Amino acid sequence: MSVAHRTDKNGDQGVGVMQLFQLPLQVSLPQTCFWIVELWGLGMDATLPLALRLWVLGVSVVFILPATCSMKYVSEQTLDATTEDPYTPYDYARFPEVEKHCSSFLSSAHNLEFDFNRANNLKKELSFVGGDWIQVSGDAPLMPFDPSDAPLGASDLPNPLYLVSFSMKHVDPLGNSHSSLKVSGALGLGISRNGTAPESVLYQFPEFRFWPGSSEFRIQFEGVYIELEKNGGERVLCLLGNALLPSRDTDSSHPWEWVKDASSTKYQHPHLQDDQILLVLHYPKVFTLTTRAVRGEMKSLNRPLSPRYFDEIQLSSRLGPYSNYEYGSEDLVSKACAPYPSGDDIVHNQLEVYKGAGFCGILYRFASRELLNIVPNWNCNSTDEYCRKLGPFVTEMAINATDGGFANVGLMMQDIRCEPRIDKNNMSLARVFTVFRAIPPWEDHYMVAPRTGLNGLTLSAEGIWNSSAGQLCMVGCLGLDNEKCQSRICLYVPTSFSISRRNIIYGRISSIEDNKDFSHFPLTFENPVHPSELRNKMNRNPFITYMYSKIKVAGAFLERSEPFDFGNIVKKSLLSYPRKGNDGDDDMANLSNLADALTLHVPVVPDPIPDVHKEKPFLQMEVLSIGSLLFGQYWTLSNASIASNQSIPPSKEDSTEKQLLLNVSAELILYGNLYTNVSLLYLEGLYNPIDGRMYLIGCRDVRASWNILFDSMDLEDGLDCLIEVKVEYPPTTARWLINPTAKFSITSQRNDDDPLHFDPLNLQTLPIFYKEQKEDILSRRDVEGILRIITLSLAILFILSQLFYIRDNGVVVPYISLVMLGVQALGYIIPLITGAEALYARITSESYENPSYEFKENQRFQFIDYMVKILVLGAFLLTLRLGQKVVKSRIRLLTRTPLEPGRVPSDKRILLISFSIHMVGFLGILIMHFVNVSRRPVHQTTYLDPSGNNHKLNEWEMLLEEYIGLLQDFFLLPQIIGNCLWQISCMPLKKTYYIGITMVRLLPHVYDFVRAPVFNPYFSDQYEFVDPNLDFFSKFGDIFIPVTAVVFVIVIYIQQRWNYDKLSQVLRSGQNRLLPSGSRVYDRLPSMSFEAELVAGVNETEIEKIPSEEEA
């Protein structure tokens, strides 16, 4: 297009103003960025008029810049839209070169019977992800690999994977040739240690990139698609590529020296542009068991001495899921399975298997791309080489290291194709094809799932399933070799569960012939299904039953664990635990609700709780069945007779409690590095709803070497079932007095010298809440709210009693300590300012610091909160009124004796002494706390609230807040000091006041000591429920503080009961006095004006009588 240019001072040409109106409607992201830079530079050009510059800048900011934010997304959408249309024009500029280099294929190609509608299908059929590639050894490697991701000194790291992905970009159905189609595509070659394959995307540009542990090379191709008659018919892609090759050094022994410097961010990787790359891919025309492989070669057309030359690359894959599979390997299948069912029957009538018409649906739901477990060769009795083999698969270092235990080795069924049929006898049949892929321990099965490579870890299989036997029998071919179809696979869908078999898929791979090269111990695989999977994947037409086999053993465990205990009898009579409801019309719903109550998903900690938490384990316990009901959204099962036969039959002598015992099966999963021995347990036993305890027998999947497992002859189907598990659930009642946590005890019954023995494990959960207990949770908040209202109401009554007392005994008012009143006022004003729970923060459960929506919207709670705030405000105002009277009385007393101000009581020294005492006390507590903290190896700086939110932990602030509460608890200390300094001979405080306020202050400590703490071990260690004996503010504080407060009450009583002279005479040690001699400084001075102000309507000439000790 015609463009007007501008030239800057340096002579460089840029974008002219006229170009602004000629921007293309569709531009790529790099082009858009170019236009933005040019427009911005144009706006900054000082030679242009100011108005024009501002307009240009406005256009760039308002219109183009926002577009770039979504340009990548838009461009990808546009690209996808154009690539989906086969008629979109594509410039095949290199077609003459393609004809030259692909002439050998073009000359033998036959005419294509091509339907234009097949264009998009052809692109999907010829694309693959995660194939394999190798390079013929030589002096010209294709690309480098940076192994610096490996830790220093690591020697057992897996070898990197060489993976390849190919993607068709365009097929031109309008070409002039009748024997070929013009096509274009992109190839991605990758070397990766973590198993990530090159992305299956439509690469727009050739590219090479690499980082520690991974390298990726992308090449753009265009060429022809042809079909040949040879080899039974094949399809061929012959393509020429364009790439940016990583440059090699001249030293062939060290071609990638520059990789060492590549970590620098400013380092530019050396590249060479190369368009002389030939790729030939061979696809079978018909997809069958023996014609399943895609093979290819990629080679350089440059001279061997050229720096762009590289050694030949060989590629392999299989046809992907968009290719149609044709069943036709009856001879191979009959060789493995005739007569059907196969004699290699692994169930031996021990389990019932599925024989219905929905086999294909079950296979898709429970096997497709699922990670299947490989059972150890626990019953192999042969040589080590034979017993440690992973069936027919060609294993690598990580799998061999498991010694036949196959820990973390998986098996996956890829590309399952199941074709259901009905035979002439109206029996259900199915023809099945799939690829079994073994997965090493270090690979992620999610990354493995889409791969299409065929190698020694893959077994392509085809076979038949017949409902008459319920057996899927298949023949398997290893890797790419059609001569290695020597494996028999028998697969079943069990319809009954037990403690040792919780599998929805169960199978075995064995050798067809006893050939030494192919012989191996039968490899068993399974797919254990979790209870949650049953609910999610099998909510229709359930066919599974449960067979109890450990009920008698669990009954013996129960009797051994429950000796006669009077405390247990009282506990059972007073508390209730989760149990089946009494709704007789819906027994299944009652059992289902009970199963929900017994199901747990909660964090746990060791019991007892350690000082330091190294990790945060999580426990998941799901109930599979209770009695005859297997849970999956109210399933109705027909195994009531099976369950009843396995249960303990109640006799006439049996108690009611024994008749209430329920058979239960469950699954326990424990997440945490410290609990790998019991990370998964299959449980079966008895549940006692009277005391909320389960007595279970557990089985675990043991992953040890095959010879250790073989020596342990007491294994059941390879599982260690000598495990006892005891679960104690919290009661459903009295939750606000009992800690609502469940306790788990897991014990091995093996001898200490047994290699499968493990130490006993005791765990405690965080608080759990039953579904039906919302009202119980609310009732605890109600109780605490009522307690706050009662304590505040009592405090107000006690303050009023003091006000009435000083109205009748006005002379004692100056001797009331203002510091004491200030401490109390501080306790009332802080909640009003901060909005915290008033009056006593300790009385409020930590669970309610972040209330839920129901709590916030509950009108009852709102009413309680409003009442508390009103009462706090009332107590604060009354305390201020009491202080106001004290201040006025001292002012009037001072006006009576202006020349003797020292005779008027003052709180200056009281404030100084009290501050000093509390400062020393706070520093002592602070020092004691940090000394305890320094002894812990791990110190927390954050904590979790009950909602799981993380908060920063300021320890000194927390301690200061606690100490402010201690100030209020010791509110009588300033009055005691004042009584000593003023040498009183009267009663400033009424007994009802100082005893009552002290009782109000002690009530939260009593409640905190009695009630169960809201348990959260992930809070900081300073909280009392982490370690009750940790610091001053703990259970010890709940005892020490009330005792000290009671001592203060006794001291006040003694000071007011006896005058100072009498008290000093009593407190003697021989001839020495413990108190100084009495002084006349603070003798009371009667003041007529003072008395008149306090008692309204009293004649100014009246003199108030001084109250006697008995009158007070």
Automatic annotation (TrEMBL):
Membrane-spanning residues: 785-806, 818-843, 863-883, 910-931, 1032-1054
GO molecular function, one term: ubiquitin protein ligase activity
Domain called SWEET-like: residue spans: 774-1061
Protein's cellular compartments: Endomembrane system
Keywords: Membrane, Transferase, Transmembrane, Transmembrane helix, Ubl conjugation pathway
InterPro entries: DUF2921, DUF2921_N
UniProt pathway annotation: Protein modification; protein ubiquitination
Chief location of this protein within or outside the cell: membrane
Keyword Calcium: no
Residues covered by the DUF2921 domain: 98-313, 333-522, 560-761
Superkingdom as given in the UniProt entry: Eukaryota
GO cellular component terms, semicolon-separated: endomembrane system
The UniProt record lists the keyword Transmembrane helix: yes
Topological category with respect to the lipid bilayer: Multi-pass membrane protein
Reaction catalysis annotation: S-ubiquitinyl-[E2 ubiquitin-conjugating enzyme]-L-cysteine + [acceptor protein]-L-lysine = [E2 ubiquitin-conjugating enzyme]-L-cysteine + N(6)-ubiquitinyl-[acceptor protein]-L-lysine
EC numbers, comma separated: 2.3.2.27
PANTHER family in alphabetical order: FAMILY PROTEIN, PUTATIVE (DUF2921)-RELATED, PII, URIDYLYLTRANSFERASE (DUF2921)
Stated name of the protein: RING-type E3 ubiquitin transferase
Organism: Zingiber officinale (Ginger)
Taxonomic classification: Eukaryota, Viridiplantae, Streptophyta, Embryophyta, Tracheophyta
